[in-house]
Amino acid sequence: MPKHQFQAEVNQLLTLIIHSLYSNTEIFLRELISNASDALDKLKYLTLTQEDFKGVPFAPRIDISFDTKDRTTLSISDTGIGMNDKDLEENLGTIARSGTKEFIQAMAADARKGAGLIGQFGVGFYSSFMVADTVEVLTRRIGEEKGWKWTSDGKGEYDIVEAPRDTSGTTVILHLNEAGREYADRWRVEEIIRKYSNHIAFPIHLHYTEKGEHGGTVEKDAQVNSALALWRRPKADLKEEDYKEFYKTLTHDTDDPLLWIHLSVEGALAYTTLFYIPSRAPFDLYRYDYQPGVKLYIKRVFITESEKELLPVYMRFVRGIIDSEDLPLNVSREILQKNRIMENIRTSSVRKILQELALLTKDKERYETFWNEFGRVLKEGVLQDFEHKEQLLELVRYKSTAMTGWTSLSEYRDRMQKDQKAIYYITGGRESGLRSSPLLETYKARGIEVLVMDDEIDDIVAGSIGKFMDVDLKAVNRSATADDLKTEEDTGRAAAIDPLIQKLKKSLGGLVKDVRASNRLSDSPSCIVVDEHDPTMQMQQIMKMMGNKDLPDVKPILEINPTHPIVTKLAAVSDEAVIDDMSRLLLEQALLVEGGELVDPAGFVKRLNRALEKSL
Length: 616
Ligand code: ADP
Ligand code: MG
Known about the structure:
Blueprint: E1 4-5, H1 8-20, H2 27-49, E2 62-66, E3 73-78, H3 85-91, H4 100-109, H5 111-121, E4 132-140, E5 147-152, E6 157-162, E7 169-176, H6 186-197, E8 204-211, E9 217-223, H7 240-251, E10 259-265, E11 271-277, E12 294-298, E13 301-304, E14 319-324, H8 333-338, H9 340-360, H10 364-384, H11 389-395, E15 397-400, E16 403-408, H12 409-415, E17 422-427, H13 431-435, H14 441-445, E18 450-453, H15 458-465, E19 467-468, E20 471-475, H16 488-496, H17 498-508, E21 514-517, E22 526-529, H18 537-545, E23 557-560, H19 565-570, H20 576-593, H21 601-615
Parallel strand pairs: 2-8, 12-14, 17-18, 17-20, 21-23
Antiparallel strand pairs: 1-6, 2-3, 3-7, 4-5, 4-7, 5-6, 8-9, 10-11, 11-14, 12-13, 15-16, 15-18, 19-20, 22-23
Helix pairs in contact: 1-4, 2-6, 4-5, 9-11, 10-11, 10-15, 17-20, 20-21
The structure holds adenosine-5'-diphosphate (ADP) and magnesium ion.
The site of adenosine-5'-diphosphate has 16 residues, from α2.
């Protein structure tokens, strides 16, 4: 029988696991128990839904045994679905999951983080090689005759041979290495199970020997977990520790969750939900092929963990379970997506999660942790979930010119000046650039607060808000926004420089949509803004990045500051060459300050040099 080669990614992973997780070897047991539990879930589902398997007795258990004397082996056995030779090759020789490369890179970059990510990513089986020189997997798939033995020392190759086995299920035998010896110990193993696997819903039996009454040894076995679906137990019976442990069993996360929401609903529809919000974002939060975090159970039978529609996409950071009493066991994906029962559970779940988040805002520090990790995803909700827009707007946080740290829209509203007409915000670049933008000059001078939105998606999200309660949200880089601030004095000043404006318009021609006198500048000579319904510069960049080829050619509006010395002096100039240069320079500097790109950098430098020369 020829030896099989591991897929290249498996080899890389094995190296990483062995070298970066050596300080936390105990997680191998959690991974193997979780695989056994998955295998039992799969068999349970088959026996309940498939005609062919309905007669098969389902006697779920996980058995752990070891030899205490030599401390050389540890084995984990399950009565689950089992594997045939093809399954073995596919499951224990390759990694099918997308994002493998990125995961390996992330782990190589930060080994400590890797320990938390490993379970999430689902490369659990390979962690056995941290504690074993050789791993054997003896297995037989349900409904098949032949049994198989998979063997490997984790060094590039594995072997599969036929090996008879009486019952279906799987036994993983670890031939322990030096570091693994400590796990051939009843108390050590029991301690680890309590820590990571106490809430596995199938009985875990530990086998050990004791001295007999009349000398010699007696074989014993004891169930070490409660084997109850935790979410079905009454809330009053559950302690904080129980919830935290279950979270870790469920997600393989090593950190405690930020909060959990446990709800049992009875009545026309009956279901239980237990949702968790992690304290750290998973590595694939922004990958489009992210792993969803909510598992669906029907009458305590595990159905799926890959259904992305159980909650809205913007709640993809939520972990947990939904257990329905009403859905049929053999529900298909298509049915699930259109099902009214599911829709009902989903809607109430969203409402409940948003309510809990609203409560969390009262605890500023913890809410900030949440916001830093998941705020960006929640903002997607403002765009996607019109039904809950109001609740979502209470949850979003922004930076502001009035303070450091985060603020909410309602806090801003409370701080508004008496005659202030709108909530103002600035978008379009990094925080430091935004804070020093000329567009804020008048607002600063008049002590009007402006929200500083430096997240790429803010432009689109904020633009879609429209109103918060009774107040309009307005972008300061939109032409009409500054009308709110206009005084009679401004109108007079604008009239005074009208002849200059006409000259600039003529000189700039098609480069701009319009040239106007500004009432929003105090220190700068010029700025650019966009017309009321035109896309902003940032929106255009995003559209370009998304491969949008036929973009409309959107031109900015140039505003000039009627009180700035450059402008007042320029009004007295009649040399057309100088006006041409200066009009371009006024436009180009405004573009640069806004983080835009110059169309003609060489021309800009020439114009600048001519102006510099004159000033000397
Ligand atoms: P994951 O559990 O995230 O899929 P693992 O590396 O832990 O990743 O396991 C790889 C695959 O091997 C599993 O998906 C499963 O198909 C198979 N497998 C592992 N252990 C068992 C087992 N005890 N019984 C049946 N299949 C198993
Ligand atoms: Mg696993």
